[in-house]
Structures are given as structure tokens and as C-alpha cells.
Amino acid sequence: MQRRSILALPGGLAAAPAAAQVPEVDTLLVLAVDASGSIDADEFRLQREGYAEALSHPAVLAAIASRPRGAIAVAMVEWGSPGGAATVVDFHRIADAADARRLAEAVLAAPRSPQSWNAIGDALDHCARLLLAAPFRAAERVIDLSGDGPDLRSLRPAEVARDEAVAAGIRINALAVAAAGQVTRFGEPLAETYRREVAGGPGAFVVTAEDRRDIARALRAKLVREIA
């Protein structure tokens, strides 16, 4: 059997092995969702419902259909604990409303992973490895990280993980869940912290949701921008 090489990348990242007949999509997208201890059960439910609603929205499906292959692949990761980020929904190929409904159902049904502190750098490392080992090929690979606080306890700082993911061809966008006027320990709005520490790559951007009831709207607009 022919062996396939794996390209080692900084920080232990490895590119997916080259393989014939790997399905192609327009975008590989990992949704990195905050499940840390700052989020209670009601907030967590609202967050999951917001993601399910946004992923199956007609505007998002229209954006997918507008792309050359008319399909993307999406996975969901929950993060929080240092070194503890967990893939809670594996990659789903989305090309139509039925695909989107199946993904939304998987998002709503997935058990909550045990998480604690905000370890964003470790979450980015986990997501980058997931993208580089994906069962699909795509010209665009994106991490979409949402959270309500800055990086606190990562084994590797967020900026380091971000820079290495970008060097591997991954773009990172962020969704800051923060009320108007809220500032981080750095004395700046959370969105500004995410611009400085998290977002990276050509065209990377940060959007803000004022609370978890606003996630569906903010995420829907963000997905349309990322996909189209």
C-alpha cells in the first residue's frame, strides 16, 4: 500500500495527507463555541439554538449556493478548559436545506462538553488540527470563534496559536459576545481584544453580539460574509 506523507507544521500542526478522490467543498468551517464556566444552562441553550437557527437560515443557504461548488463543510468545537477543547459535531457537508437541518439537529442534540477557564489559544490549536485533518478539501479554511471573555489559561497564548494557524493557511474570525460598554481586564472592549489576539489571516474580521439572544442575528450575518 502506498504511504501518504503528512506535512509537519509549527506547534505540532500537520497538514492533511494528499489523497485522490477527496470530496471538495468551497469552505471548511469550524465553529469554535465558548462553553466555559461563565455560561449557565439557560445561556448555553440560547447559544445552541442561535447556532442552529443561523446555520439553517435561507440567507446562509443562498450564500452557500452562490459558490462554485455549492457546498461547505462545518464542524463544531466547544472550548474552555486548558487543553480541553472538544469536537462535539464532526464535519457535515452542507449543500441544501435538508443538509442544514441535519446539522442544526446535530448541534441541538450534542451533549455539552465539560469546560472551565477561557483557553482560547488551546481552542485555536484544536480547531486548526481538525481543519487540517478534514475529510474534505477546500480552498478556504476558516475558524469562527465566539466567546464572552479574553484568553485566560491557555497552555499556548492565543496570539501564538493564531499566528501558526494563519501560517498554515487558515483564517480566523471572531464573534465577541459582550454588552455595550463592557470592557476586559485590558480596559478595552472584548471585540478589540479579539481583533488583537484572535482574528487573523487575509480578510479576517470580528463582529459583536450584545448577548446570547443576539447570537443568531450576529452569527447569520457573519456566516453570510464568511461564505459569500
From TrEMBL:
Keyword Translocase tagged? no
List the Gene3D superfamilies. von Willebrand factor, type A domain
Q: Which organism is it from?
A: Paracraurococcus lichenis
Query: Domain VWFA spans what residues?
Result: 28-227
List, alphabetically, the InterPro entries matched.
DUF1194, VWF_A, vWFA_dom_sf
Claim: Transmembrane is one of the keywords in the record: no
Top-rank taxon: Bacteria
Write the signal peptide boundaries.
1-20
Q: What is a single Pfam family found in this protein's UniProt entry? A: DUF1194
What is the name of this protein?
DUF1194 domain-containing protein
Q: Which UniProt keywords apply?
A: Signal
